[in-house]
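Minutes, project check-in
Item: structure for the 988-residue chain
Input as provided by the requester:
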Amino acid sequence: MAGSPRSLRPALAGCALAVVATAAPAQSPRLVQDVGLGTPATPLGSDPFDWAPDGVRMFFVASDPGAGREVWISDGTPAGTRVVADVSPGLLGGSAELVAFGGGVFFSVGDGLRSGLWATAGTAATTLQVRALGAGPAEEPPRELTLAGGRLVFVAADPTAGSELWTSDGTSAGTRLLVDLRSGRASAGPRGLTPVGARVLFSAHDDVHGREPWITDGTAAGTRLLVDAVPGPQGGDVLALAAPLPGARRAFFAAGGLWVTDGTPAGTVALRSPLVPDPSVGPLACELGGSVYFAADDGMAGSELWATDGTPAGTRMVSDLSPGAGSTAPVPVGVVRGRVVFGSERAGLWATTGTAAATFWLAPVRASTPGTLLGPGLVFNGSDASGIGVFRSDGTSSGTVRVRTGLAAVGPIGPALAGRAWFAADHGDGLEPWVTDGTPAGTGQLADLARWPPGATTSSSPRDPVPVWGGLLACLADPGSGVLGPYLTDAAARAMVPGPTFPGADPFGSASVSGAARLLGVADRTFAIVDEPGVPDAYRLYLAAGTASPSLLASFVSRGGRWEWTPFRNGIALAGGALWISDGTSAGTRSFTTNPNGPSDPSEPCVVGAELFFVADDGRRRGLFRSDGRSVQPLGAFGLNPRFLTAGGSFALFVADDGVHGEEPWVSDGTPAGTRMLADLVHGPSGSLPQGLAMLPDGALLFRAFAFGRGVELWSTDGTPAGTAPLPEIVPGAASPVLREWIATRRGAAFALDDLAHGSELWVYDAAGGARLVADLFPGPIGANPSNLTRVGDEIWFVATEPTFGASVWRSDGTAAGTVRVDGTDLRAWPRFLAVSGGRVFLDVEDLAHGRELWVADAGATAERIGTPCGEGVELPRLDASDPVLGGAVEIVGAGGEAGQPGVVLFGLPPAMPRRALDHCVNLIDPTASELLLAFPDAARSRRIVAGVPADPAFVGGRLVAQSWCLSRRTAAGIAGSAGLLLTLGLR
């Protein structure tokens, strides 16, 4: 049977397809149902600023009457816009500057009572003070937060050292004074921090040279004077031009003239003197064709547009629009279609290709801040005869148009995320967050943050969806009545019906963060967590089945509102105050603690095989534990700050710091003896700062880690030191690729990754080809910024932005030719993925007619995992399959199980509802319509079945299930089972 194609047994396949072949061929996304109705809003202003995208979400600072000035997070919808944490209680708040890193932000706090450095991954539970800093309660907070070389460099004041340069790796112990350039309480006053590759350029004052340019690589040894540009103890003013591109290898600064540097003294060259960048314009610059364009004054022509290619001969004035000593004070807006667009309060909007002859007027629009490139045009704020507004230009007169006018104020257009740029604007309700896609229809207010609670929009804002048995999808929606609750799509995905309601759900308390409930689907059941009304950090756990009333399983209290859950043994494991295990019944819902005197504060639950690994407190120190659902066993790593638990095939990877080696990768096979450091990748106390990513089909694990000379790159491990190795570098040398998002795929993993040359684009990793760029959808350094990566069978579906269509849905088979746009989505829809179920992709889409509602697209042939494995230990049977494309062949691959134990792979129809088998196992196949595909004598060996799929188009949408079972010496029932595979037949 194994290895050679054969047709699926006609009787079984015919039965299955006759029953379930009801779906239409793949088509464009379509609306399920318009649920929302809408209510009016009440105006107030929140004054948002300091936008920081992490690749998927936007962080920013804003105020509201309840929390004051704090850090907020948004996915681009009113429903997904919330305050991260009330760090400084009271109406004033204290959050200030922030900078994105990894999957979150560093931010500074200074509320008049304290100042310090904080970090967050976007939830209250992950919001932590990194270190208190400041010379006193009224001291300004840390400022000029700058990332370079994988570390944070910033300016902070200290009672003994004054205002100096600091560095942080995100931990309290790793946050320290970098160097005291002026010993004692005297301050060096660092400022103008500018990344130059993996280094940071800044100016500082010491007692010997005065204020001069300095460079740092984030270490004390690597912090040094760059050049004594103005000899003598007085020094001179140093003004850095902003790096024109992220990861730029050079920077320009003024110190007695214009200079260029690559971060080394030998590579620091004087270009022209006198030439001073215009301080009224600020450190603004843009790059075109290897030259940097900026506003500067040579002492004769006033402030005009200049360009330099980094050589004295190539440093020149582009145009003198105000002849003589008059000044144009040009502001570089950006680059589009091979032209530099710049604005002036005096001269309007202009464009140039680099010479005076090729400099031409565009429109009577006054622009004073840089813009953001969205698709084919630059979007920027400015004003004309019609007033203040938002404008778009493609570098031509006819292509320079008003996008939105009639506003009282508009802030600088911020960074782009998912095809829309973010900014602050006031149209009579104070400054609030707005978004624009560069079109009038796609420009509007995101949310009225200073008004609480947020009112309903003209949409249902679906969120928190979960696949449930039978192809249904439960999601939370606002039907316009102000009550948030679950809705279900019917099996044909043509309409939505109300689901179970949860007693006591607060539509505007917890709903602003999580809706009326958080949902998790496991096989045939849906679990829900609901806030306990009026009790802080208290929650209720429910089981929801269909539209019936939910069953209360437990009530629990979680410290600081932190809890995490994961599917476990066809039920759930919940880490919230204590460890809870539930099979969906009251009798089968119980809690564990590792500390008999109080809650163990468990976190990061992670399932390996049928074992639950988690981090918890034994009453003295935090360490690693495991549970089989009946008892809890300590595994070790106590006091080593274990975190970032990630499941491999037969092991768990985590990060720990033993005080000698720094943060390095550790593994555990579920035993104390097998819980150990995996490898010392960076010798010494700094560590490699690893983080697990995705499990590969063979049970190995991808992770990323730092190493000297190769930056933060990808590694793989099979859980052994010998099987731990770096993958080929994506960005050669010490620079690091920027990893935005990742998912596991059938053959490896998919990434949204920026290799510093193409911008953020889609990459894949597989054992055969390694890591490779799939397609450069947005050519050049901007990138298409793929987000919401979703595995749909053998394909990856995602949202990306490219010049022709803006933000739209794409699907990819991992090849450039197989990466195509899904018809019917464009930048005004701004889609987001929700879930995959029964061969359909559910996404929420916002359009002008319906607001944000649930949409569905037929995915074609898919193979989806359903349910969870059952048994004991970490080696359980596993199944995966290729997509069952009509007229082709489906490959079913099995692995795992106890060595020496026989097993079978079964194949058949999905039952009306999954049935309980032995112990906590669930049979996902209808026993009256199934057959044996393969019997194997040893479960430890891999197994492969290849079967032909009928070519008859009448079978489109038919569904079949495969599941593997093997004998087990470890379970009382003597059997272990894999998760199921739901195969949906389709065309592709």
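Outcome recorded: The helical segments are 10-20, 511-514.
No further action items on this chain.
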